[in-house]
Every structure is written in structure tokens, then in C-alpha cells.
Design brief:
Elements: E1 27-32, E2 37-42, E3 55-59, E4 61-63, E5 67-72, E6 77-87, E7 90-96, E8 106-109, E9 121-128, E10 133-138, H1 144-147, E11 173-176, H2 188-196, E12 200-206, E13 229-233, H3 235-246, E14 251-254, H4 256-267, E15 278-282, E16 297-301, H5 308-317, H6 319-331, E17 342-345
Parallel strand pairs: 1-17, 3-12, 3-14, 4-11, 14-16
Antiparallel strand pairs: 1-2, 5-6, 5-8, 6-7, 7-10, 8-9, 9-10, 12-13, 13-15, 16-17
Length: about 350
């Protein structure tokens, strides 16, 4: 297996630059794994494919204003992208200009406009790592909400008029630097429709990190190092999922993040337990050949070539079917990536 096998050519015009309105009117490609067939629907019709007793698992992580701009103590502009919180006021981050910012340096973060008056805080660079990674410490972390900006992925060039459109309607726990984008298609009404049909909801938390839009740069994907992400599966939700599986009901994950967290939790459980609560860091990298222990269905977007997310989807649905689906999506003009259309794999 080579990384180049997960490459494909996408016309730039198919990269969605703005979210669909209403949220649940995006296109939906339905993949039936058992018979290898493909259907084309709208997302609000997804209820038709779920059954009473199914459990829909959603990631309630909320995107933080993780992009910061400021002035270096020695002069010159700097940009910081927070990746994950290590301790109170201490973060792992990407800092630009990567070659110039040294350990011990301070950056005055002032918000979007570098010279604007008002609130500001100091950031100290504690350690310098590889590929632009730094460990930094805030003088006043509480100002992050005021000074930071929503960190849209690098392939989105259209400014977002409403930052809430890069949040799911059920986002609750702050910590992600990228949205769990499969959840962007849901509306409160759609969630009510699931409940009326007898479809249960379970919520987990996995704070999305850098690997959401970082391509794999090595030809052997097993040599790729995943960034750690923090996740939680509570005892209550774990019991709900285990009960559903025991009854023969399906677990449908909304997004690759929920798949990774549930599979991580399942790996820590015995065969008799099936699933245990989980709280901690995960760097689980799911490749074709992975034996899924819990997941029966997946709702996901169309992912970047050479990405860990595309490899996970191929592991779940089979690479041949995903290759066919992506070719079909390009031919029919589906919208790709974070603000793009959706896929249901059952």
C-alpha cells in the first residue's frame, strides 16, 4: 500500500468555498457496501436510510478561535495557529515565520489588525520543534476568545461572514482547530426528525487537530506520524452504544473523528466488554485492513487526496467503491471538502 494510491485529481472549481444554505440541503451520496451501489439524494433525506434503534454518534467539539496574529518582540509580524492545549496557558502551535521565531522569543498578540489599539496579550515561545511546531505560553489565555479568529482550512479563500457556520449546531465543548465537518449538514429540525423515528443520539468529544487537512508526505503511510488529539467517551454514552450493539442495532458515526474515538475505545476493551469509556489522547491511524469493532455506518464529506481521512474511509467502504464514488462525484459536480457535500456509507 502506497500513499500515491490515494491520490486523485480534483478540479479547483469543485472545492466548496461557502457553506450550503440551508445546512441540510447539500447533496448526499449513499453508498451501499453490501451490493456496491450508489444513490444520489439530498442530505435531509438521510432519515430514510436509518432505522428505529440505530444510534447516531456525533462529535460535540467546538472550534476555538485558534488563529492569532501579532508582532514579534524583535520586529516583524507573526502568525500563530493553536493545535492543542497541553496545560493551562500552554499550547502546541504552528508559528510563522517558522525559521525566524526562536525559543525564548515573545510575541504581542493584538487581534486581526496588527496596529489596532485595545486588548492584547503576550505569548512566549518555550520550545522549538520540527516543521514549524512550537510550545507557547499565554500571559492571559482568557483573551483568546477576543483576539483569535476562526481558523478556516487553507483551501477556503472566501471569508466567512458568520463564524457559526463553521460550527455544528450541537457544538458544545471548546477545543478543536478544525470543524468535524460531517456534522455541519445537521439542523435542529433534522435532529428532531431522527428522534421522532426512534433513532437515538449519542455524543462524544474529539478535538480535531492538524491532521484534518495535512497531506501524508511519505510514500509508505505506515511511516506517517499522526498528531495526538484529545477525546472523551463518557460512561453513560459508552453504555448506550454497548446496549445498542447487544440488541443488534446499528452504530452510525457522523464523521471520521467519531469513528477514530469509538475504535480507540473499543481497542481498550475486552471482547466481552465490547466498549469501555475513554478519556485521553489518541493518535489512532486507521488504514485499509483495519478490523472495525463497533461502527456499522459512516456519514462523511469528500476528503483531500493523500489524507488520513481518505484512507479511513477506504478502510471502511473498500478502496474500489470509494474510487468509483469519487469519480462519480467529480463527474456530477459534487462539492468537495469542509463546506462540501456528504456521503452516507451503510
Amino acid at each position: 500500500m502506497k500513499t500515491s494510491e490515494f491520490d486523485y485529481s480534483l478540479p479547483a472549481g469543485l472545492i466548496a468555498q461557502t457553506p450550503m444554505e440551508p445546512r441540510d440541503h447539500s447533496r448526499l451520496m449513499v453508498l451501499h457496501r453490501g451490493r456496491g451501489s450508489i444513490e444520489h439524494r439530498r442530505f435531509f433525506e438521510i432519515v430514510d436510510f436509518l432505522q428505529p434503534g440505530d444510534v447516531l454518534v456525533l462529535n460535540d467539539s467546538r472550534v476555538i478561535p485558534a488563529r492569532l496574529r501579532g508582532q514579534r518582540e524583535g520586529g516583524g509580524k507573526a502568525e500563530i495557529l493553536l493545535l492543542r492545549r497541553l496545560d493551562p496557558s500552554i499550547w502546541e502551535a504552528l508559528v510563522k515565520p517558522a525559521r525566524k521565531v526562536k525559543a525564548g522569543e515573545r510575541i504581542r498578540v493584538t487581534g486581526e489588525e496588527q496596529e489596532s489599539p485595545g486588548s492584547s496579550t503576550s505569548v512566549e515561545v518555550l520550545e522549538r520543534g520540527e516543521q514549524g511546531l512550537r510550545t507557547i505560553r499565554f500571559a492571559e489565555e482568557a483573551l483568546l476568545e477576543e483576539l483569535g479568529q476562526t481558523p478556516l482550512p487553507p483551501y477556503i479563500h472566501t471569508p466567512l461572514s458568520d463564524p457559526e457556520r463553521y460550527q455544528t449546531v450541537y457544538a458544545r465543548v471548546k477545543g478543536s482547530v478544525a470543524a468535524p465537518t460531517a456534522g455541519l449538514h445537521f439542523t435542529p429540525q433534522l435532529l428532531d426528525n431522527f428522534a421522532q423515528k426512534g433513532i437515538d443520539l449519542a455524543f462524544v468529544t474529539l478535538h480535531v487537530g492538524l491532521d484534518s487537512f495535512r497531506p501524508i508526505r511519505v510514500e509508505d503511510p505506515q511511516q506517517h506520524s499522526m498528531h495526538k488529539e484529545y477525546g472523551e467517551l463518557t460512561e453513560e454514552e459508552a453504555a448506550k452504544l454497548a446496549s445498542a450493539k447487544a440488541k443488534g442495532n446499528r452504530i452510525i458515526c457522523v464523521g471520521t473523528t467519531t469513528v477514530r474515538l469509538l475504535e480507540q475505545a473499543a481497542l481498550a476493551a475486552s471482547e466481552a466488554e465490547r466498549l469501555k469509556p475513554f478519556k485521553g489522547w489518541t493518535s489512532l491511524f486507521i488504514l485499509p485492513g483495519h478490523q472495525f469493532r463497533l461502527v456499522d455506518g459512516l456519514i462523511t464529506n469528500f476528503h483531500l487526496p493523500r489524507s488520513t481521512l481518505l484512507m479511513l474511509v477506504c478502510a471502511f467502504a473498500g478502496k474500489g467503491l470509494i474510487d468509483q464514488a469519487y469519480q462519480e462525484a467529480i463527474r456530477l459536480g459534487y462539492r468537495f471538502y469542509s463546506f462540501g457535500d456528504a456521503m452516507l456509507i451503510i
